[in-house]
Design brief:
Rossmann fold, alpha/beta, Tryptophan synthase beta chain, EC 4.2.1.20, lyase, binds pyridoxal-5'-phosphate
């Protein structure tokens, strides 16, 4: 059987690893040695699951979407990560990483953020654990996701707008790594997705795997079998997708479809569809598919969705896509806006623009009537209301009111 998980050096096939500057070598190495014994300990598991239950509000519901099922000719279930405390899946991971940081004796937390959801989730757990928190965010995203910036500040975090590059997620990651290099002893970097040097892709995937762990028993309880015919999720760095598929990676009866951000179209220069367009390179400490020019210069990503605006994608997904285990669709901005309006009008759920990419994938697939489809709604759309309204003309029949 193909191994789709990390090997002991953090490689997924040819992707992954830990390519870090000398100054970070010790803290990355220490983390590699420490993370599994800690997160597999009974003490950690008890604390982590208690917080997921009573603080985050897990399990998140698995909701049968009746009207959308009729429209797409399948049995559509939505995994409602939008109902988590702070509004997205990101908090599953930050709860786990802050517990790990405390066990390692760190006193200062840094994080990068794109849509602001990971920044808010990090600021939240720092408030909870009384830890100092600094968040790096591209200046473009500070503007387009300003409600989340205010939330982070209210939670006591310091937000650093990053003005290099195109001032989005990738630049925020670079700045966070730069900061980490200056403070390797006391600082823990809470990475927000399945990216970065080993062990982060594996660590984040494990923290998000609670999503598919729940899908299994929820499906069993609702339909009498524990696997779906399809799993669908959006993919930026890859964490909600990794969590959604984790326990189904070797389940051959389940097809996996991931939706990446096409922007204006993956064949254009205005795209974030990394799996379609990327070539192998190293970014933020990991070997992955990266959008780059022939000299290896990183190309700017472009999409309406701040959380998918990344020129790379986590190594687990690069490997699975390359081996044909996942089908990856490129969803353009207008298709995502339309998908977001459609879920809003048909089920009364306003999804994050990131999650709307997964919704839009439904119209590109052909289902049989009794196919069971589980689609992860990674976050809620409160932060995106202005963007939806500004672009309602793209939503076709749903946008006119
Ligand atoms: C709601 C939501 N969904 C999806 C993503 C994409 O991240 P990932 O691919 O790690 O799940 C983000 C990132 O900010 C997000 O906020």
């Amino acid at each position: 059987m193909e191994n789709y998980f990390a090997d002991e050096r953090g490689f997924y096939g040819e992707f992954g690893g830990a390519y870090v500057p000398e100054i970070l070598y010790k803290c990355v190495h220490d983390l590699q040695e420490a993370y599994l014994p800690i997160i597999e300990s009974a003490e950690f598991k008890a604390e982590y699951h208690a917080l997921l239950k009573d603080y985050v509000g897990r399990p998140s519901p698995l909701y049968f979407a009746k009207r959308m099922s009729e429209k797409y000719g399948c049995q559509l279930y939505l995994k409602r990560e939008d109902l988590n405390h702070t509004g997205a899946h990101k908090i599953n991971n930050t709860i786990g990483q802050i517990l790990l940081a405390k066990k390692l004796g760190k006193t200062r937390i840094i994080a990068e953020t794109g849509a602001g959801q990971h920044g808010v989730a990090t600021a939240t757990v720092c408030a909870l654990m009384n830890m100092k928190c600094e968040v790096f965010m591209g200046a473009t995203d500070v503007e387009r996701q300003h409600t989340n910036v205010e939330r982070m500040k209210m939670l006591g975090a310091e937000v650093h707008p990053v003005r290099t590059g195109n001032m989005t997620l990738s630049d925020a990651c670079s700045e966070a790594i730069r900061d980490w290099c200056c403070h390797p002893a006391d600082t823990f970097y809470i990475v927000g997705s399945t990216m970065g040097p080993h062990p982060y892709p594996d660590l984040v995937a494990r923290m998000q795997s609670v999503i598919s762990e729940e899908i299994k028993w929820q499906l069993e309880a609702q339909i009498g079998r524990d696997y779906p015919d399809y799993l669908i999720a959006c993919i930026g760095g890859g964490s909600n997708a990794a969590g959604t598929i984790y326990h189904y990676v070797n389940e051959e009866r389940t097809k996996i479809v991931l939706a990446e951000a096409g922007g204006h179209g993956w064949q254009t220069d205005h795209t974030a569809a990394t799996i379609h367009k990327g070539t192998t390179g190293i970014l933020h400490g990991s070997k992955m598919l990266v959008m780059q020019d022939e000299n290896g210069q990183i190309q700017e990503a472009f999409t309406i969705s701040a959380g998918l605006d990344y020129p790379g994608v986590g190594p687990m997904h690069c490997n699975m896509a390359k081996k044909g285990r996942t089908q990856v669709l490129s969803i353009n901005d207008d298709e995502a806006i339309r998908g977001g309006y459609e879920l809003t009008r048909m089920e009364g759920i306003i999804p994050a623009i990131e999650s709307a990419h997964a919704i839009a994938a439904l119209s590109k697939l052909t289902f049989k009537k009794d196919d069971v489809v589980v689609l992860t709604v990674s976050g809620r759309g409160d932060k995106d209301v202005e963007t939806y309204l500004k672009n309602k003309a793209m939503a076709g029949e749903y946008g006119y009111f």
